[in-house]
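Researcher: Here's my situation. A collaborator sent me these components and asked whether they could plausibly form a single complex. I don't have experimental data yet, so a predicted model of the whole assembly would be a useful starting point for our discussion.
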Amino acid sequence: MRHVVVPEDLSAAEIEAVFAVARDLQEKHDAGRRDALLPGRVLGLLFEKPSLRTRVSFQAAMAHLGGSSLFLGKDTGFASTRESIADFGRVLSQYVDAIVCRTTAHETLVQLAAVATVPVVNGLSDYCHPCQALADIYTLKRHVGRVAGLTLAFVGDGNNMARSLAVVCGQLGMRFVLAAPPAYQFSDAFRSHVRTILPEADIAETTDPRAAVRDAAVVYTDVWTSMGQEAERVARRQALAPFQVNEALMACCPDALFMHCLPANRGEEVTDAVIDGPQSVVVEEAANRMHLQKGLLAWLLGHA
Ligand code: CP
Ligand code: NVA
């Protein structure tokens, strides 16, 4: 039984295996077929924060695989004074075959995974968002045919998405560059963690967005103010304004793809012209959440 709480819970070979299952299922899906690999299986979706993509893509994925899903919101009392996370996780594991959990505090997910007797998948925490990063690199692979040796430039806040992409890029032999003001770059603790788990990873940080994107295969950005950081919005807007992904920046790398996990704050981290422009693959990234997660569920539940 395996959990995916952080991206490094999967090895490079396991990521490639998940990509292969996802690709197979995606090709069948595109040909109008559904492979019912998980009949009778139930996925619990335990969410403390809002979601469109993560919630619906997992629910659709389970339906396509012949299983079903239960959306479990705040009225379950999860991570509240109603009962302990340990009691909650042990009991929920009796009813469902896997749990996708979106939490405010990453530590909640760690505690849930420690007691759950079914696989726990991180559906976003303040620390990381592994399913999104996996779907993004899967999307890149679908475009280019390979990923090793390519550069992903992340321009903006060094947040949960940036950390997840840095790790997945490091695992798959890609170069990762973060362009951010010093206060929004990675923490020393994260840098040292990555050096320990991925000593060969090529991860750089800069305050110069143009230098970051020059050789990039992908320019990536995310909101400047993530869920839970709303009180910092004004300061973040001011500090990150020079890191907006706009047409002038994308002109430095005309062959690069533009990616964003969505939801976007148009006019802040990205302009309409870029997100709706010819380099943007944001809708395909969102679509690939479902395909990638089908591969992940089939792999985790032992049917791939
Ligand atoms: N990208 C993403 O995880 O979107 P949601 O917050 O809508 O799930
Ligand atoms: N960094 C964003 C990602 C949303 C998918 C957030 O945590 O709100």
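Model: Some features of this prediction you could bring to your collaborator: The pocket of norvaline (ligand 2) is lined by residues 124, 129, 159-161, 222-223, 226-227, 261 (CB under 6 Å). The longest helix spans residues 12-30.
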